[in-house]
Amino acid sequence: MIMFLMISGVEINIFLLAFLGLAVGIVSGFIGVGGGFLMTPALIILGFPGNFAVGTSLAWITGSALMGALSHRQLGNIDLGLGICMIVGTMCGVEGGVRILNQVKEIGLADHAVLSISIAILLVIGIYTLREAHKRKAVLDTIVRKREKLPPAMRVLTISRRLQNIRIPPMIHFTKSELTISLWVILCIGFITGLMSGFIVFGGGFIMVPSLVYLLGLPSFMAAGTNIFQVIFSATFGCLRHTISGNVIVFVAFILVLSSCLGVQLGVLITRNVRGVSMRYILAVSILLSVLGSLLKLMDIILKPPGPWLRTGSIAVRFGGLGVVVAMILGLFIMAIRYRSGRHIPIWAISLIHEEK
């Protein structure tokens, strides 16, 4: 156990912190989000005050996003040009979201507004992602049953085709993503996702990754890598701001970053062994678990006095949900290894992994 002079009465098991960094690193590397939606609530549950939880999480996100981006870069999963264009729109949106949040805060409705809007937005995105992934898997399952070769990475083009037909100059071609689209479309998507990220504080990756997949038509791997690349910049800015404000516990951030090194690398490595539909399934489950946790917190705020079951439920959702998501990711990895070695796996799992040996 270790104690922190700046947080009186708080004792934290260093091995628990290391496990937390490892587990969240796996999830972050796999689905391509910053991981703040998991790390921040977990630190609060462990006893960290909100300001230290947010500041320390941002320091961890900066380190893990950098490692994840380097790994995705090696796998060719990052479109730097697209990422830079998204950063411009996203940063402008974040500034707008922060200003709106400050206005809402002045009238005393920040907690209610943030939680209510985040629940509504993430619930829609989570359900849509889950339904789309289920439909795509059904198509792949049909191909498997016919004993035909599974196609390469498939794009979701329903909405993206319409956006690509918007011919407002300048038109930009991104070779890596095989995408030609108006710069204004990119900036608008970045601005809207940044606006939501700045207002609901966390969840930018949950909005950005589905936006890249469903609005621009990027393969899930490219969406995850490009998003984790742009997360570096927003997280670094937030980390510096919180460090100046004294909200970062450097030793804790160091432990989390160090322990997540293996987790992030493993999460990114597993993306080489699964199909994009698997990543969208995991993303959808993560989003819906986050919604459930936020709903419990909203009930905790509204109910007076709150029931003790809310705290127990919150802990179960945060840590239990993290365990479920990690188990799903590792399960996919194990089945991919078995399949590539010629061993039997359930037929429903074949469409979730790469068939190349």
Descriptive report:
This protein has 357 residues and is mainly alpha-helical. It has one domain. It has helices at residues 14-31, 36-45, 50-74, 80-106, 110-145, 160-164, 183-200, 204-215, 220-244, 250-270, 276-302, 308-340, 347-350; strands at residues 2-4, 7-12, 171-174, 179-182. The chain has a two-stranded antiparallel sheet with strand order 1-2. A two-stranded antiparallel ribbon has the order 3-4. β3 and β4 (179-182) form a beta hairpin. α11 packs antiparallel against α12. The model has no long low-confidence stretch (mean pLDDT 80).
SSE map:
Layout: E1 2-4, E2 7-12, H1 14-31, H2 36-45, H3 50-74, H4 80-106, H5 110-145, H6 160-164, E3 171-174, E4 179-182, H7 183-200, H8 204-215, H9 220-244, H10 250-270, H11 276-302, H12 308-340, H13 347-350
Antiparallel strand pairs: 1-2, 3-4
